[in-house]
Every structure is written in structure tokens, then in C-alpha cells.
Amino acid sequence: MTNEDLAQIQSLVASARRVLVLTHANPNVDTMASALSIYLALTKMGKDVTVAMESELLVELAILVGAQNVKTSLSGKNLLITYKPYNLGDFEKVTYLEDQGQAGSLDDSFKLTIAPRDGFTPDPKNFIFSSTGASADLIFTVDVLEPTQLGKLYDPGMIAATPIINIDNHDPNKDYGKFNLVEPDAASISEIVTFFLRAVNAQIDADIANNLYQGIVSATNNFQSPKVAAATFEAAAICLRSKPQPQKAA
After folding, report:
1. Is the pTM of this model over 0.90?
2. Helices (DSSP H) in 26-155: which residue ranges?
3. Which of 112, 125, 159, 186 has the greatest number of beta carbons closer than 10 A?
4. Could you tell me which residues are beta bridge partners of residue 169?
């Protein structure tokens, strides 16, 4: 990361008001610890932050600080109507009724007419209502090789319109972000996030340090991984210095 990139990232983070932190389904400890640490740090900076993935949180990740705030959907301003299962051609036409909801009308409802093909009778129970069109000033993706890996959280319009800081340590990453903090030589994503948070002047408090340290230990098999390097121990030391130390008996 060049000094120019760092200055731009610092500016992005400082000016962002609504931030999304997104990862893939069923993340491991390192990935979830990293995502939650970004969530906690930016929340502490006064941002409106949402951390999300498409799957429910695994039980073993519930020990991480902030885990209870992970969402499995993104709220948006648009209503999305999904019919499932669906075969191409099941529905032939969708019509909006122009004269509905008129001032002074007794009928103040909104109606759409969905015309099925001949021989097909849709089951009302198969219609799913959800929201889409979520918006943000800044998106962080954590351990996401390409945006489609976000699954049901993938919104092409939002991804195209929003600056992304892409954080990963896997070589196949597609470098799709405005800024790509992709370091294949790093032993863990948590160590990348540790240095990133320091670079943007975020405070690494005891909760964040606890998460990041657990991520480092898990990813490196308690520092036994061949990818462990000086940076790994330096990140771990930053976390340990930020964690409350046990009091010695008098």
C-alpha cells in the first residue's frame, strides 16, 4: 500500500457515514474475527456499520465480540418479490394498475397483476417478499475472492456504485476493489486487519484485540503455520498490548 493509497483510504474511512462489512457464508474464525473487528472499530468511530453474511453464524464463532450483531440480509428501499421454484415462461406479464390509490378513492391499495402462462397455477405460498437496493458509502469485503461469493447479499448495482476495500490473503482474489489489501504471504487476515486499523487511526481496544488475536491463533494453528513471519508476531504483540493483563496476586 503506497502512501497515496493510504491517504485515499484514510479519507474514504473518515468521510463514510454508512459502512457495510461483508463476508461469505460459513466463514472460519480468522475471517469472522477480522470482519467483526472492522465492524467494532468503525462503530467506535461513530459510523453506521452493518456486518453481514448470507448464512447463520456457526456456534463456535459466537465467542467473538460482536457476533450477535451479524446479519444475514441487508435492508434496502426497494421491495423484491421472488417466486420459487420458477421455470422460465411461468409468468407472461406483470401489470401495474394506473388508477389505484387515487385521491378521494375508496380503494387506497396498491395492486400488481401477474399473469401466469396457460396451464400454470402459481401457489401464493411460493412468493417471497424481501428488500433490496441497500446503500452504503463504503464497503469492506473480508475473505471474498469475488463479489458473487457474497451469495444472496450480492447486489451488482450496489457493488458497482460503492467504493470497496477488499481484504484477503488468498492468491486467487480477483482484486475487484477500489483498494485491494490482498496479501497472500500473510499468515492470517486478522494480522492484515490489525495493521490496517492502525493505519487508519482506529482504536484497537480490548474487544477488538481479543477478536484479532483469536483470529491469528486460529489461522496459524497457534503460530505453527509455515506462513508465520515477523509480521505475524508483531500483529499478535499489538493485540496483546491492547488486551487487559491479568492482575498478579499480592
Report:
1. no
2. 29-44
3. 186
4. none
pLDDT digits (tens, 9 = 90+) for 59-70: 999 999 999 999
Q: What is the DSSP string of 181-234?
A: EE-TT-S-HHHHHHHHHHHTT----HHHHHHHHHHHHHHTTTTTSTT--HHHHH
User: pLDDT tens-digit profile of 159-202?
Assistant: 999 999 999 999 899 999 999 999 999 999 999 999 999 999 99
Helix (H) or strand (E) holding 180: strand 179-182
Using only C-alpha atoms, the chain has a radius of gyration, in whole angstroms, of 23
As a whole number of angstroms, the distance between CA 52 and CA 165 comes to: 15
Beta bridge partners, 81, equal: 129
Contact 166/176 with Cβ under 8 angstroms? yes
Q: CB-based burial of residue 49 (10 Å sphere; 0-12 exposed, 13-18 middle, 19+ buried)? A: buried
CA-CA-CA-CA torsion sign (192, 58, 76, 97)? positive
| Burial of 121: CB neighbours in 10 Å, binned 0-12, 13-18, 19+ | exposed
| 3-state secondary structure (DSSP) of residue 79 | strand
